[in-house]
Specification:
- The chain has 186 residues and is of the alpha+beta class.
- The protein has six helices and seven strands; from the N terminus they run H-E-H-H-H-E-E-E-H-E-H-E-E.
- It has a seven-stranded mixed β-sheet with strand order 1-2-3-4-5-7-6, sandwiched between helices.
- The longest helix is centred in the first third of the chain and has 23 residues.
- It starts with a helix and ends with a strand.
């Protein structure tokens, strides 16, 4: 019995040590994605839709059928159409994404926001949002908006910490969503 308790304690200590070591091995960089990132972008986008289907408007099965070339073209032509896709990397692995698209004069929407579960809590969402804000401001944007599923409390807390506030709306078509805005100062 004492050996079993000791073994359990040792295993718990090893798990804590491994968690600490994994935190030390995090080296995050963020950048705007380009065509050369298309395979990683496709993989993480599909992962986000597969793991959290309620959090996104897109459908995993439909997106899964799209080729790598489709995703490459999305990244290649994004800036020409007032869009941009950003990624967070741990070393060379893409671990988080977000996109922005201008929807009105001076207003952009934050889309496709996802950070892999094991990398949450390390400020990655904030870094992606800062990059997106900088892009929108550089394009003359004054407002960054987003829609988030009301059950996604993790994201809502992160968006609030990043400076978004809830916008009250009577949009009955999206009653399970929250709309959030962030004013961008000059």
């Amino acid at each position: 019995m004492a050996n079993e308790i000791l073994f359990g304690f040792v295993m718990m200590c090893m798990a804590v040590i491994l968690k600490i070591l994994s935190v030390w091995d995090i080296m995050i960089t963020v950048k705007q994605l380009g065509p050369s990132d298309c395979q990683s972008y496709r993989a993480i986008r599909l992962e986000s839709l597969r793991i959290h289907p309620d959090w996104f408007a897109a459908d995993y099965e439909k997106e899964r059928l799209k080729s790598v070339l489709f995703f490459e073209e999305q990244l290649r032509f994004a800036t020409d159409s007032g869009k941009a896709v950003f990624g967070a990397f741990n070393h060379d692995a893409l671990i988080g994404i977000c996109a922005v698209a201008f929807i009105l004069e001076g207003q952009a929407e934050l889309l496709q926001v996802y950070v892999k579960d094991e990398f949450r809590g390390h400020g990655i969402l904030n870094r992606l949002i800062c990059l997106a804000k900088g892009y929108v401001k550089a394009q003359g944007g004054r407002l960054l908006s987003l829609e988030v599923h009301s059950s996604n409390q993790i994201a809502i807390r992160g968006y609030r910490r990043a400076g978004f506030s809830v916008r009250i709306t009577d949009d009955v078509d999206h009653n399970d969503s929250l709309f959030m805005d962030m004013r961008l100062s000059c």
